[in-house]
Write a structure and sequence with these properties.
Elements lengths: L9 E4 L5 E7 L9 E5 L9 H13 L3 E4 L16 H15 L4 E6 L1 H12 L4 E7 L5 H6 L5 H10 L1 E4 L8 E4 H7 L15 E6 L8 H9 L5 E6 L9 H19 L5
Parallel strand pairs: 3-4, 3-5, 5-6, 6-9, 9-10
Antiparallel strand pairs: 1-2, 2-4, 7-8
Helix pairs in contact: 1-8, 2-3
Length: 265
């Protein structure tokens, strides 16, 4: 954790009364470098190790950095089971619109990689580049629904929610049928993805949650040619070891420098 993790978060109010908790580091580069926005994963919050590491990277470079908790996550309002991909994407756009200025590099971890793609499609002129860390577009369909048993599907249809057991003896994760059904409006890997910004995808080949082949599927479907996939053979889903964090920081820094030389159109 960085010192800013111990400070009370700021709050962005949404029109429906919900609140989004965020932490923001303002630009000290004089606008020379794009800002960085971190989008966390499913059940994760903005105090995670990758978000904190990027906060330190941006502090050293002087560039703006923004991280926030999705609806139903961390210190934001709402119940986790009421969240949907569309809701989380809309909130991400609200955060970008209200709290950032100029071109941004979006960094999406796991589910955040899906949200980052949806945000880039909605705000192409605001995006300088994308960095996916074990990005998981379409995970509700390909990694949850496709692997559920008939018994679990029946429970979802009857109760509207299934409590997925934790792999580490923690509390179960509520998976709502509404989450899966609403997400079908936002699936991306079924066709061409009209994003032509530079994209960097980092993925561990020992990831037990999101297959590394997902990164290759995503790279194939992106419209642009400036797409680089980096596979870490012994990397897990979190990619939070020191070497992984160094790779993430170097990737964001390199993309920031190259983006600074290339105007966003």
């Amino acid at each position: 954790m960085t010192p800013s993790d111990s400070l009370p978060p700021e709050i962005l109010a949404r029109p429906d009364g919900a609140t989004i908790a965020y932490r923001r580091r303002l630009d000290r580069s004089g606008g020379k470098l794009p800002g960085v926005v971190f989008l966390g994963g499913f059940t994760s919050d903005m105090t995670g190790i990758k978000a904190s590491a990027l906060d330190g990277v941006c502090d050293r470079s002087g560039q703006a950095f923004l991280r926030f908790d999705h609806f139903g996550h961390g210190m934001s309002s709402g119940a986790f089971r009421d969240g949907t991909i569309g809701r989380w994407a809309d909130d991400a756009l609200a955060v970008i619109d209200a709290l950032t200025a100029g071109p941004q590099i979006l960094v999406g971890s796991s589910m955040g990689g899906w949200i980052m793609l949806l945000a880039a499609l909605a705000r192409p002129r605001r995006v300088a580049g994308l960095v996916g860390v074990a990005a998981a577009p379409d995970f509700t369909e390909d990694l949850i629904w496709a692997k559920t048993t008939p018994e679990i599907r029946e429970r979802l249809r009857m109760d509207g929610v299934w409590l997925e057991p934790s792999a580490d003896a923690g509390p179960p994760t509520p998976i709502a049928l509404r989450l899966i059904e609403e997400a079908r409006r936002h699936l991306l890997l079924r066709g061409r993805i009209a994003i032509d910004r530079p994209v960097r995808l980092l993925h561990g080949m020992a990831d037990p949650d999101v297959p590394w082949q997902t990164a290759l599927r995503l790279a194939e479907r992106l419209q642009g040619d400036d797409v680089v996939v980096t596979l870490i053979k012994d990397g897990d889903h979190r990619l939070s070891r020191d070497a992984d964090l160094e790779l993430l920081g170097a990737t964001v820094a390199a993309l920031s420098e190259s983006s600074a030389l290339r105007p966003v159109r």
